[in-house]
Amino acid sequence: MTLVVLYGDSMLARFTKTRIDGLESHVGAGSLVLNCAAGGWTSVDGARRVHAVAELDPDVVVLSFGTNDCVPTRRVELEAFAANIQRMIEGFPRAKVLAFLPPSVVEREGEGPRGRTNKELTAYRDVLRNAVGHVRSVETDRALTPLAAAAEPTHVDDLHLTGPAYELVIAALALHIRLALDED
Length: 184
What we know:
- α3 (43-54) packs parallel to α4 (78-91).
- Helices cover 46% and strands 13% of the residues.
- The chain contains eight helices and five strands; from the N terminus they run βααβαβαβαβααα.
- The two termini are 16 Å apart.
- α5 links the parallel β4 and β5 (137-138).
- The relative contact order is 0.17.
C-alpha cells in the first residue's frame, strides 16, 4: 500500500471524498490518501503539527502552504516561511515530499481576497518550489491553462478552485506522485 498524506491549507483541505477517491484512482491500485489539511492554516500551523502527522509514516507527503502566509494581517515573513517548510520536509525523512503550489488569486482593483496579491504569492510559491524541487512541484496555474484558454472559470470565490479546475490539478498531482514513486 502507498500512503499519501495531503498536508496544508484549504487548497488541499477542499479535497472532498470524491476528489480523494479520484486522486487514489489516478495514482493507482493500492494507494490510500489521507487528508491532513485545514482551511486557514499557515506554515506555522504545519510546522507545529509535523511530528504528529509524521507518525503516519507516509510514503508521499503533498505540502500546500503560502496562500495564507501572505495575507497582510497574518503574514509569515518569507525567511520564517522557508524555515517552516524546511522543518516540515525534515519531519518526513522517509517520505517523498511534493509541493502543490498555490494557484494565483483573482485580483480586483490590485488585490485578491483579504489583501493577497499575486506578486506576494509568487514569492511564497517560489520558496516552496525551491524547497522541494521543480520536478516535485505541481504547477497549479499551468495545470489550469486549458480552462483559462477556453475562458472557463477557474475560481469559485477569487481564491479557491472550481470543480473542473480541481479535476485538472488532481490529474497533475497524481502524475507527480506516480513519478516520485517511480524514482526508486
